[in-house]
Design goal:
heterodimer; A: about 290 residues; two-stranded antiparallel sheet; 13 helices; about 75% helix; disordered C terminus; B: about 400 residues; alpha/beta; Rossmann fold; six-stranded mixed beta sheet; 15 strands; globular
Chain lengths: ~290, ~400
Amino acid sequence: MSALAFILLYGISYGLVLCLIALGLVITMGLMRIVNLAHGAFAAMGGYLAITLMQQQGWPYAPAVAAAVVGVAAIGVLTERLLYVRLYQRPELDQVLVTIGFNFVVIGVFTLLFGPNVLSITLPPALKGNVDLGFREFEVYRLMTAAICVGVIGVLWWIFERTLVGAKLRAAVDNRTMAQAMGINVPLLLSATFALGCALAALGGALGAPMLPMEPMWPLKYLVLVLVVVALSGHGQVRASVGVAMIVGIAETAGRYLFPQFGAFFIYLLLIALMVWRQDGLFVPRRAAGVA
Amino acid sequence: MKNLLLRAAAVLCCAGTLAFAAPAGAQEPIKIGFVGPYTGPFAVAGQSFRQGIDAYRAIHGDTAGGRKVELIYRDSAGADPTLAKRLAEELVVKDKVAMLGGFYLSPEVAAAAPVANAAKTPLFIVNAATPALMKMSPLFLRMGQAINQPAELAASYARQSGKSKGYVAVADYGPGHLVEQAFMARFAGEGGQMVGNVRIPLNTADFAPFAERIANADPDVLQIFLPPGAASVGFSKALAARGLTKKIMIIGQGEAEDSDLPLFDDSIVGFKSIIYIDANATNPENAALSDWLKKNAGANARPNSFNIGAFDAMHLAYKMLADQAGKPFNGEAAVKALEGYSFKSPRGPVTIDPATRELVQNFYLREVVKGEDGVKRNKVIKTWERVQPVAMK
C-alpha cells in the first residue's frame, strides 16, 4: 500500500515536470512540424537564467522563474526569426542536424559562462521540507510543482480548444495555405507558437531544476526522456501528451523502485511495446490515425 | 707549419663544438602527454588535472634534471576508451612524449596499457581506481587509490561505531560493483548484517525511488558511491527529502569534495566520506597548493583528489628526470628507481609501494561541517596512517 502511494505520488509529480518540458516540444514539433531537438537547450536556458537571477541579482524565487520564462521566450522568438525560419521548408535531416548543432553551441556557452559543474538552485524556505499528507510525508516542492503544472496544462488546454487563437493555430497547422488565404498572419502565429514552446520549456527547466539539476550537458542528457513522451503522444497531440507523461513518470518511478537493476531499461521496453502497438500515438483514436 | 697549426686549431675548435653539442642535445625539452576529460560531462576532473599541473609548475618551476619540461594536453572528452588509446598513441608516436599521465576512467587506462608497454612509457594513473589495472603494465604508477580500500575502511569504521544494519547504494558500473563487494564482504565479515543493496543506473534523473527503497530497508549505515556532480547532488537531495541524512550514518568517497560543497544545500552537513586527501590539511605542501588554487583557479577551487593526483604525478615526473639527468630517458629504469621512494605530498607523507606501484598513503574519514562563517567544509575526524595497498592475486 505504501509502495503504491509512493509510486503514484512521486511518479505523477515527476511525470508532470516531464510533461511541462515535453509539452513545449509537442507544440513546436507536432504543430509546427519542425524537428526541434534543441528544445532541451531552451529548458536549460530557463533553469540557468532563473538561478543566475537568484544568485547574482538576489531576486526571490518566483520572480526569477517568471523572468526566466519571459526571457527565454524572447530568446526563442529571436532564434525562430533568425534560424528556424530557414528550416521550415528544409528536409527533416537538415532540421535534425541544425538543432543538434545548436545544442552543442549552447552547451559550449553554458560551460564558458558557468563552468562544467552542476549549478544548484536554492529553494525558498517555504518550499523546503515535507508536508504530512495523512498517509505519508511528501515534499512541499514536489507538491507545488505539480500544482503549477496542472494549472499551466489547464490554461493551455483552454487556449487550444476554446479560444480564437487556438482555432487559428489549429487551422494554420492543418492547412497553411488556406489559413493564409483566410487572412491569418501565419508567420506571426508561428513565432508566437515557438515562443510559447520555449516558455514552457523554460518553466519546466526552472521548476524542475531541483529534480533535474542544471549542468552544461542538460540539453542532451534529458532529451531522450522528453522525446519518449513526444513519440508516444503522436504528432501534435497536446492532450495525449499529458496522459503519456504521467505514464512515463509512473513507469520510470515504479521501474526504478521495484526493479532497480533493470530500472534504466524499463522505460525503453515501454516505449518499444507502445510504439509497436500504437505507432501513431497512444491516445490517438484508431480511425483518425488511419485517415492521417 | 703555420698551415698545420691552423688546421690543428680548426680541428680542436670543431671537436670543442662537438663536445659542447652533446650536452646541448640533452637540453632539448622533454614532453609529458596528459590525456584527460577537459570538456564534456567529466570536465571538472579534467580541469582539476590541469590545475594540479599548473600549480606544481608554478611552485617548482618548469625544468627538471637540467631539461625544460613541456606538457601536451589531449582531450578524452567523454567515456570513450578507444579515443583515449588513440590519443596516447599519437602522443607517443607523433609528439614523442617521454611519459603519459591523466586518464579519468579505468577502461581508458586499460586501453592505453598496450601503448605504454610497447613504447616503455611510464604512465601516471591520476584517477582510475579499478584494482586490476596495475597488473596490466609494469610502467603504471597510481596516484589515486584502489577503490576497495576506502570501502573496506568504511565497513570497519561502521562496525566499530556500533552499526549493525548495512546498506550499499552504488552507481551501476564497474567501480561501483567493486565498492559494493568490498563493503558487503568486510561488513558481514566483521559481524554486521547487510539489509540490502541497490545499483543505481548512471542515467538516473529522479533519485527518489532509490531513497525510498533504502528507507524501507531500515539500515543504520549506508555506504554510497556515485560520480561527483549532478548524480551526487541529486542523490543527496533525495536522501535528505526522505529524512535519511539525519537518521543514519552515510559514508561516501569523493561525492562531496570541498571544491564541490557549494553545489550542495545544508542537508549535506553530517555526510561522511573516506578518501586519501584532506583539502584543509595544514601541511606546507597542501597550504601552497591551496593558496595557488585560490589565487589562480577561482575562489571555490580547493585541493581535491584530481588536482593533488596530477600535482604528485608531476612531482614523480620531475624526480624521474632528475634521476636520469644527462642520460637519454629510459622509462623502465625510471619507474624501477622510484620503487620505495617516499615524498611529501599535499595529501601527507607517501611512499611508492615496490610490490604494487601504488601509494602507501593516509586515508582520512571526513565529515561535512558548517563553520560559523556559513561555509561548509570537510573536517577530518579519523586518520588511518600509511595504509598498505594490497597486491592483486
